[in-house]
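Dear support,

I submitted the protein below through the web form. The confirmation email said the job was done, but the results page showed an empty box. After a refresh the structure appeared. I'm attaching both so you can tell me whether what I see now is the final result or a partial one.
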Amino acid sequence: MVGHSRVRIPAVSTLIAFECAGRLGNFSRAAEELQTSQSAVSRHIARLERQLSTRVFDRSRTGVRLTEAGSHLYDAVAKALQTIDRAVAEAGGASNDTHVAIACSHDAWQLVFMPRLDALRRSLGENSAIRFVLYPGESRDAPHHPDADLVFTWDAKDAGPGTMALKEAVRPVCSPQYAKENAAALEGPVGGWGGLTLLDFAVPDRSWASWHDWFDSVERPDPLPPILTFESYSDVLQATSAGKGVALGWRCCVEPYIETGTLVPLRDDFVEFDNYYCGLLTERGRRKPVARNCLATISEHIRS
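What the results page shows now:
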């Protein structure tokens, strides 16, 4: 019997690196999720492109974007890896009950979860394993992530039983040096902040408060200060720490910066808005005691 020739399938590690880079649009962030180096991810992608004799990514200074060929391949690879992931979980049976997968944005991982990771692991116990699945920006598809037991998002249309809802609370923050250099303006009324530089996270259809929302609730400067925008909230806080201006600090993210003195608060208290950052149990997460325990533990640590 004559066998059929088969196209040589790329290594699984290469396909995983490709899926992660395609989902996040950035080799560095893919490396962080995969706990490897950016150069290792780049080598996987270069190996894949050599094998396919075509480019799967267009590169730029701000990140990478899938080509048309890469987009077609990404859809197939993502579905295949999800199928494998579910099959492995089902085959693992009871052993998978100690594992929990959390889907969140890169900013949430870096600013909310990473500073609390050790405490979370201690609370869940040494036999539990936590895996973070990062999605780009504030993806509207995040609540339907097939690989997650828990999803953290500003878009909580599917909120239901077992939902953690954290009300948004913000206050202006800046570096100690910036506060010293602009003490005359910062110690006076907000109406006199016209000469400052404001920093913000620019995302279309954002679900959280902007500087304009904060000014409407407090006082509007005249003239309105210039606002520099960044691609991620992590970048906003890095620029703020470097003394580039004043940012709106979300309580859950900036408290560690304030405790260490990296940033200083500029108003007496936080201003709350009717926006909520939510932790949602997925359908498969609701069936897992470890996932329910994880959500309760995260809620306790974030609120404390």
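Response: this is the final, complete result; the empty box was a page-load delay. Residues 68-92 form the longest helix (25 residues).
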